[in-house]
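Collaborator request, handled under Task 6.
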Amino acid sequence: MKYESKVIGTGAAASAFLEEDFFITFGEEAPAELKDYCYIIEKNRVSEEITVGDKLSIDGTSYEITAVGDIVSKNLENLGHITVRFDGKDTAEQSGTLHVEVADSIELDSGSTLSIG
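Structure tokens returned to the collaborator:
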């Protein structure tokens, strides 16, 4: 396991992004102007660099990682902040974005577990 965390809070507008096939995470110290749009997660150590071919697991449902922005691992460890896009792209749009395979539906809420390995 390269990374594991738990969702400890949900911003008022965070789930609306799931309909657009993405979500945003941030640690507890998320700026006030962003908190409403994020899933707040526990900040934890990233044991090794996250790479294409790894799996993102949400409550036991796995999605293959297809592209990794340059600062995903660093941002997860230091800020708990990344964007996860379920679009299957093979090139990261932004340095803090993790792209995974397309999903039919995405379930995520307070108490959900996230892991990458």
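The cover message to the collaborator said: "The radius of gyration is 13 Å. The mean pLDDT is 96. Please let us know whether this matches your experimental observations."
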